[in-house]
Specification:
The complex is a heterodimer of chains A (290) and B (318). Chain A is 72% helix and 0% strand. With 290 residues, chain A is mostly helical. The chains are: A mainly alpha (290), B mainly alpha (318).
Chain lengths: 290, 318
């Protein structure tokens, strides 16, 4: 008996319907998520003006309230995150690709840990921040600094994984040539491997920043307060960020706040999608072919 | 012996006793290597930190509440005057969200993956793949807002016969979470399907199979463990999702299977606790760690299963 043969009209009909069904599934995915973007733009459009960026939050006057402290908070936060993830993430990637002896148990253990951390829910990083970063031993208090470290640890696996891939893509012959000319291992990495893998590493960093911009849950645990009207300070005082402020506005009943939240989404999505497109562009444009 | 040979062969060289070892200890290089090692070891520090913080908090929590009350109690009211610490309602709330998420993520993700890997022309693939990747990066607050203000009213219009009562609905929140995990499921399943060797497809075609049979009876079964790995990752992601459920599922810890009702999930409880005032050292404070520990164990085991499934499949064919 032939399991596979097209025997009759029903089989032929099934063969025609099946791809249509699959395409339907794909359309649901793309339509659902782009519908979300379209909805925020339509809903938030009336509030897209300068006061959205320059004004602080207000409960009494939702029609003129804005995101100033939240946007500044996000900018400071991202500054702190970048300062941490670039050296730490790229450093870990260089170690694992260039120095680590893959037969040693501890190197395998590092890799296992990074893989596991990539799957830990973001709010659990918030608990770590609450227990050890805002309080002793780091004891930074419920400040932007504590938030930046928490978020940096959260996105670190993203950077490490992307940077490792980029470094691995540099062919060994480049390293061998450099070493043969008398360069030390570090000179080889710094002058040959890193410049050759630069765009890939940068792509990983940008993707991590895009993720960091949108994270709200862990920040709730390390002091992002839902109502802040003053400009933030990195090392002291309450702060808020764009997604946390959006969350705050959206939990209020009036329609004005709903619009305000949607307008905030537009600003945040604009930033995130810009980051993602830059990353995609870099990957396409500067990817080195060996 | 060797040294004398080297010395003899380099007659006239500046240093007759040249060794092959580095002439300079290069402390700078060593310092750099030590720093890089520290960067890699930081992952272990972070994991240890997470485990220790959860462990100590949980131990402290169980000083006040018995393990059986926590695991088998059916009332979760930590902030009441007469508190009750049965974690079941919020675990069931989480499972409710996971269920509705899978109702969306499995069919939609699977159809998208099969289409992309088996049917899509190269051009469509080149456009859709990056679009899906970009959609994967949408902040979850945005999706939560969309679920609360758009999907929830839409659901009521579409199913007016259901007993809608509150602004929040676990079904709608679950569907939104499902939508969020679709790009993840699609990309993992697509990878699995594409790694099935061409020779299997060609063999089936040679036996006279049509495209549908090749896809569903040859390629799909061969890739099944990777595809299921993708589903398990989606479950793990849905368990850990916080902002969507906080916005759209509400905060009523109750044991219910009704998708129109508001529930509280484990993550939403942690989120809500921390937006209020958490007084350090109270039982309330330690509930965060106990619930967090449960969450961590659940997602960690899911991830371990997923990694094994995805990898097992790879080993067979590569």
């Amino acid at each position: 008996m032939n399991l596979f043969a097209t025997r009759n009209r029903r089989d032929r009909a099934a063969n025609a319907v099946f791809p249509a069904l699959l395409l339907l599934g794909l359309s649901v995915a793309v339509a659902g998520l782009s519908g979300m973007i379209a909805w925020s733009i339509i809903e938030g459009a009336p509030r897209l003006n300068v006061s959205l960026i320059t004004n602080g939050p207000s409960i009494l006057r939702p029609e003129s309230a804005g995101y100033r402290p939240a946007i500044l908070g996000t900018v400071y936060l991202i500054g702190g995150v970048v300062a941490l993830i670039v050296p730490l993430g790229v450093g870990a990637a260089i170690y694992l690709e260039e120095y680590a002896d893959k037969t040693r148990w501890y190197n395998l253990f590092f890799e296992l840990n990074i893989q596991n951390l990539a799957g830990v829910p973001s709010i659990v990083f918030g608990i770590l921040g609450l227990a050890y970063i805002a309080r002793a031993p780091l004891d930074l208090g419920f400040t932007l600094a504590a938030g930046a470290i928490t978020i940096a640890l959260l996105v670190l696996p993203t950077v490490i994984i992307a940077a490792r891939e980029a470094i691995r893509a540099v062919p060994p012959s480049i390293r061998e040539a450099s070493l043969a000319l008398g360069a030390t291992p570090w000179q080889t990495i710094w002058r040959q491997v890193l410049p050759a893998s630069f765009s890939g590493v940068l792509t990983g960093v940008i993707l991590a920043i895009a993720r960091a911009i949108g994270e709200a849950a862990p920040l709730l645990l390390v002091g992002a307060v839902v109502r802040v009207s003053r400009d933030p300070d990195f090392f002291q005082g309450a702060y808020t960020t764009l997604p946390v402020q959006i969350f705050n506005y959206s939990s209020r009943a009036q329609v004005e706040f709903q619009q305000l939240a949607a307008a905030g989404i537009i600003v945040m999505l604009g930033l995130v999608l810009l980051m993602n497109s830059v990353a995609a562009f870099l990957r396409d444009r500067y990817e080195q072919k060996w | 012996m060797t040294r004398s040979v080297v010395a003899a062969s380099s007659v006239g060289a500046v240093s007759p006793q040249r060794s092959l070892e580095a002439s300079n200890p290069r402390y700078g290089e060593r310092a750099i290597k030590a720093f890089l090692l520290f960067c890699a070891a930081l992952s272990v520090v972070v994991t240890t930190g997470i485990v220790l913080s959860l462990l100590f908090g949980t131990i402290e929590f169980f000083q006040h509440v018995s393990v059986t009350e926590f695991l088998f109690g059916t009332k979760w009211t930590p902030q009441f005057a007469n508190p009750s610490f049965g974690v079941l309602p919020i675990v069931v709330g989480t499972l409710n969200v996971v269920f509705w998420a899978l109702v969306v993520a499995i069919p939609v993700g699977l159809c998208s993956a099969i289409y992309l890997s088996e049917y899509a022309p190269g051009g469509v693939r080149r456009v859709i793949k990056p679009v899906l990747e970009m959609l994967e990066g949408i902040p979850t607050v945005a999706i939560g807002l969309f679920a609360l203000f758009f999907l929830r009213p839409l659901a009521e219009d579409a199913f007016p016969f259901l007993p809608w009562s509150t602004l929040h609905s676990v079904g709608v929140a679950g569907i939104a979470v499902g939508l969020l995990t679709v790009p993840l499921v699609t990309s993992v399943a697509d990878d699995a399907l594409r790694s099935v060797p061409r020779s299997l497809r060609e063999g089936a075609y040679a036996l006279g199979a049509n495209k549908l049979s090749v896809t569903m009876r040859v390629v799909f079964p061969a890739a099944i463990s990777g595809v299921i790995g993708g589903f398990v990752l989606a479950v793990s992601r849905a368990i850990g999702e916080t902002m969507v459920v906080l916005l759209a599922a509400g905060n009523t810890p109750q044991l219910t299977a009704d998708p129109t009702k508001s529930v509280q999930t484990m993550t939403a409880y942690i989120g809500v606790m921390s937006t209020g005032e958490i007084a350090f050292g109270t039982v309330d404070y330690y509930t965060i760690f106990a619930v967090g520990a449960l969450l961590f164990v659940m997602t960690l085991s899911m991830n371990a299963v997923a990694i094994r499934l995805v990898r097992r499949f790879r080993e067979v064919y590569e």
